Amino acid sequence: MIAPRSDAPYRRAAAEIVEELGGDAERGLGDAQAADRLARLGPNELPAARRRGPLLRFLLQFHNPLIYVLLVSALVTALLGEHVDAVVILGVVLANAVVGFAQESRAEQALAALAAMARTSATVVRDGRRLRVPSADIVVGDLVVVEAGDKVPADLRLVAVSELRVDESALTGESAPVAKDPAPLEEVGLADRRNMAYSGTFATAGQGSGIVVAVGGRTELGLIHRLVGRTAGVQTPLTRKIARFGRVVTVAILALAALTFLIGVLRGRPVAEMLTAAVALAVGAIPEGLPAVVTVTLALGVARMVRRHSIVRRLPAVETLGSTTVICTDKTGTLTHNEMTVTQVAADGRVYEVTGTGYAPEGSIAHAGGPARPGDHPVLHACLTAGLACNDAQIVREGDRWGPVGDPTEAALVASAAKAGIDTVPERVDTITFTSERQYMATLHADGTVYVKGSMERVLRMCGDRLTGDGGREPIDHGELTALAEGLAEQGLRVLAFARAELDPGTARFDAEPPALTFLGLQAMHDPPRQAAADAVRACRTAGIQVKMITGDHAATARAIGERIGLGGPEPLRVMTGAELAATGDEELPAAAERAEVFARVSPEQKLRLVKALQSRSHVVAMTGDGVNDAPALKQADIGVAMGRSGTEVAKEAADMILTDDDFASIEAAVEEGRGVFDNLVKFIVWALPANVGLGLLLMAAVVTGGQLPILPVQVLWLNMTAVLILGLPFAVEPRDPDIMRRPPRDPSLPLITRMRAAQILLVSAILLAGAYGLFHYEHGVASEAVARTVVVNVFALTLMTYMFNCLSLDRPILLRGVRRNPWVAVGAVALIGVQLCYTYAPVMHEVFGSAPLGGTAWLRAIAVALISYVLVELFKAAYRDSTGAVSRTRRPTLP
Ligand SMILES: Nc1ncnc2c1ncn2[C@@H]1O[C@H](COP(=O)(O)OP(=O)(O)OP(=O)(O)O)[C@@H](O)[C@H]1O
């Protein structure tokens, strides 16, 4: 890949590099020094993929078969001496390009803004203090700290590590994490990649620190990036499908236009007239605006989701969200606030009540109605001390509130210890960190004491006896303690168990596992459920979406919280534990996974199995996760959702969507937006296509029956420029249907345009054909050709207007309510009437477009067609609604 150079940083001693870069391997750079380097050398960003310049993007708007047709026809028209027509066509082509350019730029801007939001942050040491800064602000010489879950923000020459493992697959394709083991500061050591951590890779375990040797485009990732030059597109499966549909239709219509031309000429009609007919046909029938509308609607949907706290990382997720059938969610932080407060402590056979709220170290500990001074309750004292000793968190005062720094579970233990006046512990010399798999944490202190805390099951297994009030020990009764813990968990409390052991003072390290322990007690903490989450769960149930809780917590805690959030509705919750999951074979798992609402004591690996099991039952699964080990499940899920606040960079990178507020309600909101985007697209397409089909049919009918052309190319262009744009616009800002979350999820295998919608499109096309063709011949009999053509244009414009009202809901009549919900509908209607009056009466329009003034009865006839169309479509919708009876009624998804 990249030839190793003799001066490559991994071939040099870290100390030498630190000196050369003017850094400090302990205190890092100074703030001012870092700011200066940032200003001088620029941000730590990969050079943006070279974007096409605005001029090129504008010119590309002309790269479109329809535009070619128009340009050729402008040329032919000019050669025929019709200069006005030629200019009109060119004007329309230009306007079309401007509109397309503007829409595309808007979509790209929305997506660029998103990319900026999804940027990562990193930990640096500056002036001896650790800070979290945007990765872009990192400069060469910075001392960077990475921990499990972090993305390495720049190329680092490592100076110190502790069990650091790095997933370098982004760089090397090798998926097994690489153990990092740099040479000491002054040495070169093995002179290989183990000395380094590279930008764009992920720390999957342990931690380490290193000096930044390269940033941005100068990192190894940057070099590769330059070689590959990837450009991120705005395409999704849907936009691709629509673009393909557009291409097929375009080719078909061009062929049809050529055929029409040939038939006409063979029948002896003038070539110029047939050319005009063919051009009008091509212009009228090709749905040229469709792909742009789809892209813009998706981009607008993405922008709305940001306002509702979800950042979509991959555009296709917007489409998938609308068809989500199952949401698997974490408990802590997503369904609850992740604000832990210890409310009860069980020690020495007693249960103590702890008062106080939040993380404030203010409150008291009471037993049997009286205060319990820790001095009189040595086991209680030992249990609270263990909570403070085996702990990496702090509580800090912010204004008049106390907040946690670090793991909220641990911060709660700091607060409970403080309430008993315990605030110091012996110096710590070694640690076994907590992981969800390990389920405990252990610390070794200078006086030889080992403190352990973790889940009840795990800690009890390590305990041989328990501490008694007189300082002695007695055998433990597992059954009794388990019952005690479950009693607390059933109240929805998160229960941690505490234990300790004594080693020889001066022991410096843990051997593999902690020794046999003495049980101290339990602390149970309250984590208030989120009210918004409960509402959102209810909304999901109504929308036919199952919500499942997946948690590492105890089954009883999970069940109690699940009940409070309303996961099972009125029915009792079905809980499956990780152990049951492990005992269930791949064949039975899908059915079991579908049945249960709560999965407790589940490991991240089991999440992956669960997603696959649900998908095997044709579910579209959204899954949340925040840890390093959640990444595979997030990738496997149809919608991987990472937590913006608590999530690791690894999880965010694997996810399709990031919640900025970690709240379950935001997932529900995103699903709602996803459904809305889809709905609006369908509405727009169902509304827009009849104009194309109707115009195509009208022109073919005229040529086949040998009559005069009922509409000229410039008049078709007029309709495209006015009616289609003015009336199409309100669809872009159309609010979601109020009953959008009362429908079942969309079946992703269904086509965008179902049979019923296709029938509706054909119905309106037929009305347009009959109305325009009939009135053209009638008017032609009593008035001039110009008048007859003006009537045809007005029939199209007015019918598209009444049809817009039909399409505001695809299944319910909502004429007035629709206007109140979306005032742009009224604006569009009034504007359209305005421009049509201008078209009909302004002399300049007569010149340019060949229109003519209409009398009152001609207007009435055109209006009649529009109204008849409105009524017929409403009847059609009603008939369809009655025949299925399904549309707006709640329906639970049918479970096999
Ligand atoms: N910092 C910690 N130290 C020791 N034990 C812990 C710690 N945090 C949690 N535990 C114990 O481990 C169990 C599992 O915790 P874990 O963090 O895996 O659940 P969780 O992933 O937070 O739950 P959720 O999936 O709902 O977010 C908890 O029930 C608790 O008993």
TrEMBL record:
Q: Which SMART domains match?
A: Cation_ATPase_N
The UniProt record lists the keyword Isomerase:
no
Q: Mind naming one GO cellular-component term on file for this protein? A: plasma membrane
Q: Which domain of life is it from?
A: Bacteria
Task: Give the UniProt keywords, A-Z.
Answer: ATP-binding, Magnesium, Membrane, Nucleotide-binding, Phosphoprotein, Translocase, Transmembrane, Transmembrane helix
Query: Which family is it part of?
Result: Belongs to the cation transport ATPase (P-type) (TC 3.A.3) family. Type IIA subfamily.
What protein name applies here? Cation-transporting ATPase F
The organism named in the record is Thermomonospora echinospora
